[in-house]
Structures are given as C-alpha cells and as structure tokens.
UniProtKB/TrEMBL annotation:
InterPro entries, per the entry: Calcineurin-like_PHP_lpxH (IPR024654), Metallo-depent_PP-like (IPR029052), MPP_YfcE (IPR041802), Phosphodiesterase_MJ0936/Vps29 (IPR000979)
Biological classification of the source: Bacteria, Bacillati, Bacillota, Desulfuribacillia, Desulfuribacillales
Family stated for the protein in its record: Belongs to the metallophosphoesterase superfamily. YfcE family.
Protein name per UniProt: Phosphoesterase
Entries under SUPFAM superfamilies matching the protein: Metallo-dependent phosphatases (SSF56300)
Stretches assigned to the Calcineurin-like phosphoesterase domain: 3-141
Protein source organism: Desulfuribacillus stibiiarsenatis
GO terms for MF: hydrolase activity; metal ion binding
Amino acid sequence: MKRIGIISDTHGQLRTEVLEALRGVDEIIHAGDVVGDEVLRELQRIAPVHAVRGNNDYGEWAMCLPKTQMLEHEGFTLYVLHILQEMDIAPGAAGVNIIISGHTHKPLIEEKGNILYINPGSCGPRRFSLPVSAVILEIESKNCIAHYIDLQDSAKNYSYTFALQSYNQIIRLYP
C-alpha cells in the first residue's frame, strides 16, 4: 500500500500538526502556494515531495516548480494543479482518475464522473473560519481511500473510498 500525504496552501508556515500527520507517508503532494523553499526542504525530510506552483509562489525558487504534474501510482493517474478552474486537460480523455488542487482553502473530497477530486484545504495560516486540514491518500491495487484530517478537530475527520473504474483504463489504452 502506498500512503501519500496531500497538502496545500502552507503560505510559508509548516505547523507541527502537519508534520505529525505526514509522518510515515511514502511521498507528499503539495498543491501550491508553498510560499518558501524552506517549506519544501522541511517536507523533504519526511518523504519525497511533488509540488506545483501556486499563485503566491514567485521568485527564483518557485520557477523550478511546474504549474501542473501528472503522477502514476498503482494504476491511478493523478493530476495536480493549484487552481482547479485553470485545468488545461480533459481529465477523462487523459485517463486521469484523481485531480488534486488547492487555492480555495476549502477542503473537498468528491467523486464526479468517475473522477475523484481532492482539495486538502489549507494547512498554513487559518483563513476566515475555514479548517486547517490535510488528506492522506492510501492506494492499493485498484482502490484508494482518501482520509480527510482536520488538524484541529479530529471529530471532523472522515474517509472516502474510491475504486478504479475499468473504462478509465480503456480510455488510457486507446486515447
């Protein structure tokens, strides 16, 4: 089983609760608005990091970050970007099973059209009354479980199970 920590919108702040939640993951996906390469260096101490550039990531260090990333894990194709509305692909036609975004600071785990959409929310400075949160994605075989983690109120934690759809594999094989 592969365990992937998913975070976004750290805005230069890495909370102790985030580091604890990410302990033991195989890799980390940061969906943008890192706001400082020191955040990425600290995350690299835990696990390999895949990060995309957010609208608040600028400067020389940020230019190394791609705007989007396509990742493969145990048959799942993940597409990572910061602002969902700026998606520049047709996810079904591209064989994408999971879309990971940030920007809104509003956590979301939702399945639409056999695609799992994940926004981990923000784990940096609190914005308005929105939660401070992250997601741990467990992938095994043709199933995954997205665990939403409210870093300040564990009573709000929940999990969502998502199965790889066979026709998505066919689309990928015959674009």
